[in-house]
Backbone:
């Protein structure tokens, strides 16, 4: 049975859907509680096994959808109940959510297996083997948060997962928080990711609040069921919802202008980079727009805005990647660019091509990131070999950056397996036929060619730069002669690292078969959830494949690769033979432009100048002038404290001592005076007392006579 075919009968495993949350939760709890007594392989095995079981459950959900494509919602708990408001939490099982489950858990499992070996060396290179367990606890938590996001049946629960992956990105990007520039560089990178995403999350919250105000619900079914009715009454409200969502997408999926956190995310260990950039967090924005397609369908203005944001991001980030020297930074900007392709696709209403590219990108970008980690550790092993040979003598290798491509070269012979899988990933990313990236990117370009020639042109230019910077990276890393002793002594990675790379390479080669023209299995699979009208123009249905568009995109990619080879293999090799310190050939011919690209258009500096520094100055003014001088020194000390002191002096002396004590002391003096006066009558003589009694009797008798008269 083909991927897109369905039947009306067959087994169902929908009841097992909650296990996609339970397994990663159990994995992190086991390692959190008992991991301190377990060896490293057991810790990694438990974490990887938990994600592998999650992948198995996702496969069962896919099999269930073959026979019951309408899907279902598996209720879990009544989450929030306030008066008539009742927000439940259920597992949404449909073709869109299960696609994301398969990608997250499948690619995530391979990354977990890779991390078992990678982190064994990484924790020792960084001098803290005890953090090995913490890493896999965070890793399983990341999978749990992402599965919560993609399986939620309402926007509020989706937001819980949305925030969860934001938290995990902070924990994992800053995993080596005491490393980096000045001992805090990685911690600052984590902060940057967290704060930037909070800005985007505020947009998501605004969308959610507006949505609840218009629809009275967060549930997908209830919201989507009222879209057309609400659109007729309040189209501006839905426009606001979709624009607010886009703000959230620019944060989570690293689009203009909130993309700046993603390159700094390279501070985390390489498996973190692969998990964030390929299969999990950054794809959440694309999923959100696709899930919300009924909302975007009724507001073309929002769709157009999304398409343009994605297109401009794709081109912008691709140009920056050309001039980066950090092997992971090149891939980071590549991720931003490819996410731009996906966002542009869903903005054009091409949801199937956008999700198709999300899937294939997960294959080859995970492959590239994990392969870059293999390269980095290979160079680090070479560096250790150099240090061993020098035996403590001075060596330039001691300060070598193992991620700088200028320190590499010639690794094709030292790391043959890594080279071949890296080459496959690079060609897939460049869009070379018949690899997976060609089919998914070609579908996006085809839709753009019919939607707007401007979008098509800009995306085609971005595709050219993509092929060019990947050719540049392959040549700098693997070809030519080693440009450092560490590269000359580099060695291949162990099988626990290379086997996941080989599997991802196979997926990068054959992943395009998911949605081949004429069959479109993936498109038929998604159409059960993503209801859309086939693309038409002038009343004619658009074709699913265009030989002209495919030929142009392939020609552009090949031209870029050839140009990259001529510049970096031929010209770069000539420069190296002259024994000069490595200088990028483009820097020699177009230094001003190259400088702009190397410095990433100074966007970070611009943000610091326009936003961060004024904010810090304003915060400092509030702290020093308002809080300290005004509130503390004047209002607190001068007004409140001194006023209180004066009031207490007034109450203590004139009132308390003068009046209250005066009254009390006066009464005491009066009593004492009266007592002293009455004491005179106490003489001790009986005659005096008898005389007093006599006068008393006379007084009483006189009173009675006077009263009774």
Residues:
């Amino acid at each position: 049975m083909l991927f897109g075919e369905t039947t009306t009968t067959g087994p169902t495993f929908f009841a097992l859907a909650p296990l996609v949350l339970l397994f990663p939760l159990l994995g992190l709890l086991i390692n959190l509680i008992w991991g301190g007594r377990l060896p490293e392989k057991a810790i990694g095995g438990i974490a990887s096994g938990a994600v592998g079981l999650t992948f198995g459950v996702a496969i069962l959900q896919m099999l269930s959808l073959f026979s019951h494509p309408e899907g279902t919602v598996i209720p879990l708990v009544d989450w929030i109940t306030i008066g008539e408001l009742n927000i439940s939490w259920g597992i949404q099982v449909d073709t869109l959510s299960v696609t994301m489950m398969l990608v997250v858990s499948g690619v995530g499992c391979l990354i977990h297996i890779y991390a078992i070996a990678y982190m064994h060396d990484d924790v020792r290179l960084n001098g803290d083997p005890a953090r090995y367990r913490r890493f896999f606890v965070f890793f399983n938590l990341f999978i749990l948060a992402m599965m919560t996001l993609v399986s939620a049946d309402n926007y509020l629960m989706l937001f819980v997962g949305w925030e969860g992956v934001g938290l995990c990105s902070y924990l994992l990007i800053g995993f080596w928080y005491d490393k980096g520039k000045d001992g805090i560089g990685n911690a600052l990178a984590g902060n940057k990711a967290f704060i930037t995403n909070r800005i985007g999350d505020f947009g998501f919250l605004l969308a959610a609040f507006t949505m609840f105000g218009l629809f009275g619900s967060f549930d997908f079914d209830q919201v989507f069921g009222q879209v057309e009715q609400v659109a007729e009454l309040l189209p501006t409200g839905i426009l606001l919802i979709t624009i607010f969502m886009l703000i959230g997408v620019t944060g989570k999926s690293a689009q203009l202008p909130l993309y700046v956190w993603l390159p700094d995310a390279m501070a985390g260990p390489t498996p973190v980079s692969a998990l964030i950039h390929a299969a999990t967090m950054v794809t959440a924005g694309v999923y959100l727009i696709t899930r919300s397609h009924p909302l975007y369908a009724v507001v073309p203005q929002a769709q157009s805005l999304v398409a343009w944001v994605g297109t401009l991001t794709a081109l912008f980030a691709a140009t920056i990647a050309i001039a980066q020297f950090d092997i992971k930074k090149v891939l980071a900007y590549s991720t931003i660019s490819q996410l731009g392709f996906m966002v542009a696709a869903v903005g054009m209403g091409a949801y199937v091509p956008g999700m198709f590219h999300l899937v294939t990108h997960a294959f080859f970008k995970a492959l590239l990131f994990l392969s870059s980690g293999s390269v980095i550790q290979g160079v680090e092993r070479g560096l250790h070999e150099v240090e061993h040979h020098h035996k403590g003598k001075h060596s330039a290798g001691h300060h070598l950056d193992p991620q700088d491509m200028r320190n590499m070269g010639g690794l094709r012979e030292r790391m043959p397996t890594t080279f071949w899988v890296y080459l496959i990933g690079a060609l897939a990313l460049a869009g070379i036929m018949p690899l997976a990236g060609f089919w998914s990117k070609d579908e996006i370009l085809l839709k753009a060619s019919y939607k707007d020639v401007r979008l098509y042109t800009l995306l085609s230019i971005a595709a050219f730069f993509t092929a060019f910077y990947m050719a540049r990276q392959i040549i700098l890393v693997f070809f030519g002669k080693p440009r450092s002793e560490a590269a000359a002594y580099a060695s291949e990675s162990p099988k626990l690292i290379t086997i996941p790379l080989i599997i991802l390479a196979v997926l990068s080669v054959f992943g395009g078969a998911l949605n081949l023209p004429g069959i479109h299995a993936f498109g038929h699979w998604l159409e059960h959830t993503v209801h859309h009208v086939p693309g038409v123009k002038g009343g004619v249905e658009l074709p699913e494949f265009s030989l002209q568009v495919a030929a142009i995109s392939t020609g552009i990619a090949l031209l870029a690769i050839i140009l990259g080879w001529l510049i970096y293999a031929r010209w770069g090799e000539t420069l190296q033979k002259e024994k000069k310190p490595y200088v990028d050939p483009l820097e020699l011919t177009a230094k001003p432009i190259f400088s702009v690209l190397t410095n990433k258009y100074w966007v970070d500096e611009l943000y610091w100048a326009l936003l961060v520094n004024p904010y810090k100055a304003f915060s400092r003014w509030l702290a020093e002038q308002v809080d300290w001088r005004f509130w503390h020194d004047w209002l607190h000390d001068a007004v409140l404290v001194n006023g209180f002191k004066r009031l207490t002096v007034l109450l203590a002396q004139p009132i308390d001592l003068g009046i209250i004590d005066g009254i009390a002391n006066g009464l005491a003096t009066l009593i004492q005076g009266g007592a002293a006066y009455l004491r005179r009558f106490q003489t001790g003589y009986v005659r005096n007392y008898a005389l007093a009694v006599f006068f008393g009797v006379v007084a009483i008798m006189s009173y009675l006579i006077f009263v009774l008269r």
Remarks:
- The beta strands are 72-82, 85-93, 536-537, 540-541.
- The chain has 28 helices and four strands.
- The mean pLDDT is 90.
